[in-house]
Fold this protein.
Amino acid sequence: MTISIRNLEKVYKLGTEKGKALEVRALDGVTLDIEQNEYVAIMGTSGSGKSTLMNILGCLDKPTGGQYSLSGIPVHKMSSAALARVRNEQIGFVFQSFELLAKQTALKNVTLPMVYSRTNWIGARKRAKVALERVGLGERLTHRPNQLSGGQRQRVAVARALVNNPSILLADEPTGNLDSTTTEEIIALFQELHDAGQTIVIVTHEEEVAGQAKRIVRLRDGKVMSDFPTEEDPIHQEFLRAKAATAMRLAEEVAT
Amino acid sequence: MILLSPVMMILRVLSQTVVLALAQIYNNKIRTMLTTLGIVVAVGSIILIMGSLSGMQRGVLSEFEQFGAKRVFMDGTLPPSWRGKLNWREVQLQQEEVDAIREHVTSLDKLCAMYFGAYDIQYEEIILESVRTTGIEPSWHDIENREIMEGRRFSSIDIEQASNVCVINEKAIEELNLPKDAVGEFILLSGRRFIIVGIVETIERSAMFGGGDTQTEMYIPISTAMNLNPDGWINYAQGEMKNPDDADNVVAEISFVLRKMRGIEPDQDDTFDVQVMQNIIDDFNKIAFVMTLITGLVVLVSLIVGGIGIMNIMLVSVSERTREIGLRKAMGAHPIVILMQFLVEAVVLCLAGAAVGIAVGQLCLMGVRNMPIEMLKDAAAPFWAIALSAGLSAAAGIGFGMFPAIRASLLNPIDALRHE
């Protein structure tokens, strides 16, 4: 079991009003297991708690209640300093806005997580090179982010996320800043990584992107609303049908 | 396994943060220059002031040393507690007192009574008015370290008989238009015939000890000088001790002899003054130390002002790079590593300022050395001043960089990543 969460809660205290504590229950008892080599999409409207769940899964934030164990380590009890090490060794992040260091080359950007690693700094340059080759940027090692396209930047970010061989790859709206062509590029890359055995958790609000995952977890109001394999997910199936119908209608219109 | 040890980790992170900090400085050249100006000025002034001060101190001390660290001076003084009971004439040293000191103070090697007079001197047609004429004893040559170039010193017979003999310097020969070999010539001193028995060498001295332009000098035996003046007292006596470390003993022994001879009661003040060169050097060193301390304080204040500038720019840097901090934390940077990154950056900034400041200070010192001031001729920043200014700058970097660095290290990674 790579990820195991039980009754996870995250409550934000906003102060008190008229003697009553004002609080927001961003996560309200989430229970979820993610096995090794799964490819899971987490979906939900804004305010559903998906970002909060993502932050806790990525050890960037601590839950206020419940248990979370990552690769068997109970991380919900850890100090923020200890979490830094877990982030470094167990988790690879891909952000919506890439978060590359603008003044550094692709190679340097990919090297960054190894700078903070206890072991992987030996031969870091070579590892970074291999990682960039794996995402198809072997020819772009010395380019800076502003010399790369959006899709290429996100590839650099993916290479950076993978370079320490994390247990899970966490992607927060990885295609949010990309056009449809490059979105497909990145989705294909994720598929490739999944085929190679990488556990992937992706947060998205695009059904198309979620459809590539093997399992869709939907959140609403801090709770798990549904959790199905993609082909059994009713909302997604509905989406596919609607999409097919639209395509059909469009084809008919073109034909007539 | 040593490669994975925490020590190695710290060293590795440290070297990486130094590279990062240098890159940061390189990318913000103008800002860095303006920020470190305070440090540059502070360090530049440390180097300039300490260099000048220590140069001056060295200059003065070498003057003192040339003058002799073993020297002892004594003369009569009239302290306030004795006023009304004695007048200033009655406290002047007497020849007998000097002789008693010579006899009883064994830690004194040499002693010489001195009397200053001014007399008209004539050789053939040339008359020099009011020439400074000093009554001395033969030991004067050894104490002053001025040898006879031609002829001889005064002998004990000259002293005993108060002979009309004199020793002059080359300047006097020139002024009086004496023949080159002046020994054996007669001159008139205050209307009496004196035979020149020796020519004394002239030593170049700085203005501080009455040097500068060489003056016409005339020396006669102290006993002869006593006969020429009716007062009966001498101006002062100077001596040389056997061992400069004996200073306190020498002063005590001389005081003992003089107090006994003058019948001063234990509760009464001395009516004389005994000074040792070492005391004067100590006094000077104390003054120099206080001066160093005061300028040091002023410079410290400017360093603090410079440090606040550094703190300001580091706070700006932290807030500018909040997202970067968030990213680094998300990638697994330990809070202490982030703290170190910004601390090192502050220290590197300060040290860069210090390096420029040291260079500027040295340049200024070069200017100071070329100024027409004798005492500042070998002004040079001592090594400790350079080390101190670099150390203080680094300390300022740590001190003033700590707050921004702690702020950076405590940033919550999620909030930092969301920062616009």
